[in-house]
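Check my protein:
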Amino acid sequence: MDAVNASEPFSSAESRLRAVPPHALVATAGSLLAEGFGAQDVTLLLADYGLTVLQPVTHLPHTGDPVSAHDGPAGTAFTTQTPVVEVIADTTMERVYLPITVRGDRLGVLSLRVPAASADPATVLRLGEFATALGHEVATAGRDTDLYLQARRTRRLTLAAEMQWQLLPGRGCARREYAIGAHLEPAYAVGGDNFDWSTSADHLTLTVTDGMGQGIDASLLTNLAVSAMRNARRAGIGLADQAALADQAVYAQYGGKVYASTLLLRFDLDTGTVRAVDAGSPQLYRLRATGIDLIELEAQLPLGMFEETPYEEQTFQVEPGDRLVAISTGVHGTRSATGDLFGERALRQILSATRQTPPHETARAVVAGLIEHFGSKDLTSDAVVVCLDWAGRPIDSARLTPEGT
């Protein structure tokens, strides 16, 4: 194979990554970076399900000792989503930590040592492009191998959690109009809570679902509800009818014995108009300027509670700079040892304190605050937080200019 020149485009490197078996991506990346940059000690670190540590994928399918996902140079690169260069004492090498993110979904960090003389900003930028290309290949490889999923685990998932993680779209999504970050706990034992999204040229659909019950029963219920909503959405059916068809599917299976609470949102990327169906208990907060408001939506029946429940859409508006935070019952309904509801005071304090942090970190901070409020990591209910920063689209001045002027 031809050597990769550091100054040439990465198309050849990308093609070589695509050509190798899924399990060989890390080794191939190391070879390519050694050829092109003189890199050594190339290590892929993947974020675990709880977003607490970054685990080195060193000897697949096993991992080396984890490092913090929030502290140290690797954690800093991960949380800030910017490269970090660490000077190594008594050597001519420097260690570079590069965030690996695929369309807004943070996967981990690529760590490598390069000669200090070549660790200039332009080289670090090219290394960052390589890390992004590797991230896309790792995400794709997940269809064909369990190796990278295994590397993300600090312990075994429950079967219910395995089912839920397979149902999730990821933990983040971003494009110029918005950025989403999501978090859920207990990450290794979650049962019924779920978030989902889908983006098109002009719209974003976002849902937060809380299936009744715990464990396998809750996971099966949520899987049915989410799959029914996806099926309706992919058929081009409107938001209210997505809820209605999912309601019918759940009722047909369970006869009203259990149900799924769901919040459905559809954003118009041009106008910022949001269509909403509140089918249950998830809550939605809007942060605008310095204010925090609970968006009051008409509470409608959860999915599957009664046969053929009709649903109606409501609308509200988001503006550039707005932040929306959707939370499940396991967040706003959790009480402290003294009986205080988390959603009444502590939640607002955390949302205010994290206003300037990225959506991913805000979602994680809310869950961390919930655990502190509850007094234990062993939450009695699943907890989901989805944070969305809205940028919208700039007004097209051409649309506002009369013809002929």
